Amino acid sequence: MPVVFILLCFSAKSQPSDTIKVNTDSVYTNPEKEAQFPGGKTKWNEYIKKTLEANIKTLLDDPKSNGVCTVNFIVDRDGSILVAVPLNMQGSELARVFVKAISKGPKWIPATVNGIPVKSLRKQKAIFKSSPKETF
User: Which residues lie closer than 8 Å to 45 by C-beta, 6 or more apart?
Assistant: First the structure.
């Protein structure tokens, strides 16, 4: 019996690609493998940091830009960004800079389901905190 059980488990695990249909027009919120920035989280953090630093004057001049900005965006099957929308901090320079960085940045490695590239929804955060100006 144990041999049959092991064979059945193995057989069941080898069939998902035959039984799960992948819809390449759908936007997946929980794909098997998530979309990734090229180079992973480290390169993503470097890219965002560099972008924020390049816009530091406008960020410092906008008091609404202090905080955590969250952006939802869709990574297409080819890794391009279809749309990026701030979920909070609308109208702030941080939201504008962050959305632009995502939209104009390099292509992502697309998400996959059963090894097939699919559209996927991503949520990312950027934090900007300026120090209050000291007076003496």
Answer: none
Share of the chain above pLDDT 70, in %: 82
User: How many angstroms from the chain centroid is the CA of residue 52?
Assistant: 17
Q: Are 53 and 47 in contact (CB under 8 A)?
A: no
Domain boundaries, the chain: 21-128
| Residue pLDDT, tens place only, 71-116 | 999 999 999 999 999 999 999 999 999 999 999 999 999 999 999 9
DSSP β-ladder status, 27-28 and 116-128: parallel
Pairing, β 81-86 against β 67-75: antiparallel
CA–CA distance, 75 with 57 (Å, rounded to integer): 30
Distance of CA 111 to the CA centre of its chain: 10
Tell me the one-letter amino acid at 61: D
- 65 CA to centre of own chain: 21
Q: What is the dihedral of CA 86, 92, 93, 99, to 10 degrees?
A: 10
Q: The pTM is what?
A: 0.78
